[in-house]
Each structure stands twice: as structure tokens, then as C-alpha cells.
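Project standup — Tuesday

K.O.: blocked on the structure for the chain from last sprint. Re-posting the sequence here as requested.
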Amino acid sequence: MQRIGIIGLGMMGRTHYEAYSKLPNAQVAAICDINPRRAAGDLSGTGGNVLQGGLQQLPMDRIVGLRDYRDLLKRTDIDIVDICVPTPWHAELVVAALAAGKHVVSEKPLARTIEQGEQIAAAVAKAKTFHMPAMCLRFWPQWAWLKEAIAGGRYGAVKSATFRRFATPLSNWYTDGKQSGGAILDLHVHDVDFVNHLFGTPRAVMARGHRDYSGEIDHVSTIYLYDNVPLVTAEGGWCMSENFPFRMQFTVNFQKATADYDLARPDTLVVYQNGKTTPIPCAKEHGYDAELRYFVNCIEQNKRPTVVTAADGVAALKIVDAENRSIASQQIVRL
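H.V.: unblocked you, prediction finished:
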């Protein structure tokens, strides 16, 4: 049984708690938040995009509530520290948790800057314990299916791949681009990481976008330039008008078929081939559940996580940085 301490009880902290509650080999034993209400287990108001959230109150008769993360790191009954605080504090907390001898899972993006990401990667390399950035798309059943279909050549070579992610404005610290990095870092990074997961680091990017309420790039469209894939694009933003539904989609056109995913559709993943439309059955779970089950099992089996690593997190930060520079210069930027 792995005992978990969650730091940060906002939208993602609540989501992670709910994922752990489904695992037979994990138990949340402590939580930590600077907000006294959340430190007492009151999760009201923690909505989200994919999961709106129904959990309002944690069972504090079984969980210790703390307000200083240092107190949580001192606890000898905590095996895994789960970090769900705002992005600028990821590096400080990940490094401290690893130094305290804890296994660590930390929310995306890996860090606010490349330098902070590299600081985390260096600490991970030295640590005897394990770390994994929570890049949930790599574990989302339909997206994991796409990775396998491409890697195995199931439908021939990829001719084009398009990814889309749209949301309405968020609140709280997300509205301050100096903290969140804008939608290009906090939202779009999902697709950046998955493009890198599928095809490797692009040789260059050509991006266009605009700033909105956060003060940073809040809507972006990028072409990723590869030598072996004709067209790879991703578009994302979180400044859509009120009541616009959250969108998470991909369309990949192979030599022999077209695969299309839409979160809002009853059959989320469909393949079009030889005049037939075939829904693809996948596990009925979210990537949040699958990623944390994978991490806990890695700890139980004493196996270092490999599906996504701190190095992958740094790579995503570098691609996003190139996109920002491309938007600023209106030029193609090489990596």
C-alpha cells in the first residue's frame, strides 16, 4: 500500500485524489494547501474542463490536513508526494520532495521555465526515488491507441496529424500569465508533448497566436516541421466565448485510413477505412486515472517510470519556447 501526500487541492489536486481513491494499492494519507479551507478538506469550487467534479469534502477523519509543505515532507508515513500547485512552484517542491526521499509525481507543465525544468531533471537524475510528470494524454486510452497505431504502422505512414484543444477563460492564478505562462504553456503543452511523443522533437516550428486576458499567448496555432511527416499541426486556446464547450480532438490521416477523436462525441474514437466507419472500443477511463495507476504500480514494482520522464517535460518546454519565439518574430524557429 502506497501512502500519498497531495500538495495543492485545486482542480487537479481534487482530480488526483479521486483517481487514487479507485486504486487498491494507494491511500491518500495527507493533504497540504496554503488555503485553510482546502487544508481542512473543503474542495467546493474546484471545477474543471474534462471533469467538472462532484467531490466537495474529503474524509478528514482519515487524512491529515497541513498548510506548510515542509511539514508534509517530514512525515515518515508518506511514500509518494503528488504536487498540484501552480506552475512556478513546481521546481522548488519537486526538488525538496526528492531530497526528502519521497517518490514524486508533479502536474504539467514540468515547470514555468526551461531553467526550472532542467533543475528538476538534474534532481531526478541524482535521486534514488522516482519522479514522473503528469502528462495525462500519454495515458488517455484513445490517445495511447493512436501512439500504438502509428508505432506499429497499422494503417501505413502518417500523411497529416491535427490536434485541437479549446476552453473558455479560467480563473484564479491562470489569469496571470507570469505564473501560468498563458494557454500556450498550460493548455497547449498537452498537445506539444503528445506531438513529441508521437514523432520526436520537430526540427523547427512555425507558430502564430495572440495574447489575451493572461497577458501571454492565449491562442496558438503551430505547424511542426518534420522530414518524415508531411504535415503536423496543433491549435489551442482558452479565450473562447462564454458557454463554448471544452474541445479535445485529433484527426490523423494515414495512407490507408483516417482516425478521428472527439471528446464530446459518444463514440469518441472512430476510424474511417475502405468506405466503413468503425468506432474503436477503448477503456472507459480518463488519463488521470491511468497515469496515477501506472506511477503507483511502478513504485510497487520498483521500476523507474518510462512512459513519460522529466527529460520529456524539458523537451516540451523547449518546443513551447520555440513557438513563443516564432510568434514574436513571425519567423520559423529551429530547435
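K.O.: great, moving the ticket to review. The mean pLDDT is 96. The two ends are 43 Å apart (CA to CA).
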